[in-house]
Amino acid sequence: MQSTAAKGAAMAEATSRERGIDRAVAILEYLQARRGPVRMGELAKAIGAPRSTLYEIVGRLTAARILEPAGEGGAVFFGRAVHYYAQTYVAGVDLLSRARREVLGLATETGETAQFCMLDGDKYVVMLNEPGRRTFRITSEVGIRLPIPWTASGRLLVAHLDAAGIAGFIPAEDFTLPNGERIDPAEFVAETGAARARGYAVTQELVDRFTRCLAAPVIDRDGRAVATLCLVTPLDTPAERQGALLDTLLAAARRLSLAPPGAVGL
């Protein structure tokens, strides 16, 4: 039988290994949030790891090309292997693979910035983004987690929830916009109901006062919006063109859906 000392050593090794995995994940999450090279000192402080341990983990991730040296002062950033993994992920997930074609097609056909968006926990995130042809381009970075009430897509992605469900799901602070203005939760609930009834959502001047966002739901077999397709347009876009853009957007969303967009939350 294994001795008490041996069992203790094995448990300590397992705990150390788990802590190392947790720190590796923390490194990747911090780099994603920073979106740029980070020096080792800052990284050690950010994730609360001893430098000796951090150097060991970073060394292993660098050897695997998950990280790579970037800039001066021993800074590191994501390596090329992350790009390979991401491309494989998109190609291997049917919905994302088809969405990539639709997003590219929307941007090419309309000349506007096109996006494919989903929920990440209790936040909204752009999964795919294709800038339009305008000299002044409206872009949103892929992978940045934003409060749901800030977006047109958010009103569709939680349209299956009632008022109590929305209150329990969206943190109270997420109803405050970057400029300090606060979205009335009751009005937000009403807007989700209206979006569900229409089968699309339109918002303007929430995060950027010069833009309007058109969002159409991608529906699963249960009639729930699992994702959205969006067009981000200048605020002064004429109503007639906005209507044409919305028709094009809804057609693209129907091609991705397993149920008609009008069936949101049904």
**In the residues, how many domains can be counted?**
2
Profile the largest sheet. Answer: 6 strands, antiparallel
Distance between the termini: 59 Å
Task: Write out the strand line-up for the largest beta sheet, numbering strands in chain order.
Answer: 5-4-3-8-7-6
Architecture (CATH level 2) name of the largest domain: 2-Layer Sandwich
Number of strands: 8
Rg calc: 22 Å
CATH class of the largest domain: Alpha Beta
Order of helices and strands: HHHEEHHEEEHHHEEEH
GO molecular function, one term: DNA-binding transcription factor activity
Domain HTH iclR-type: 18-80
Keywords: DNA-binding, Transcription, Transcription regulation
Protein name: IclR family transcriptional regulator
Structural account:
The protein is built from 9 helices and 8 strands. It folds into 2 domains: about 1-85, Winged helix-like DNA-binding domain superfamily/Winged helix DNA-binding domain (Arc Repressor Mutant, subunit A); about 95-255, GAF domain (Beta-Lactamase, 2-Layer Sandwich), CATH 3.30.450.40. Helix 4 (about 80-90) crosses helix 5 (about 95-110). The strands form 2 sheets. It has a 6-stranded antiparallel beta sheet with strand order 5-4-3-8-7-6. Strands 1-2 form a two-stranded antiparallel ribbon. By secondary structure, the chain is of the alpha+beta class. InterPro entries: GAF-like_dom_sf (IPR029016), HTH_MetabolicPath_Reg (IPR050707), Tscrpt_reg_IclR_C (IPR014757), Tscrpt_reg_IclR_N (IPR005471), WH-like_DNA-bd_sf (IPR036388), WH_DNA-bd_sf (IPR036390).
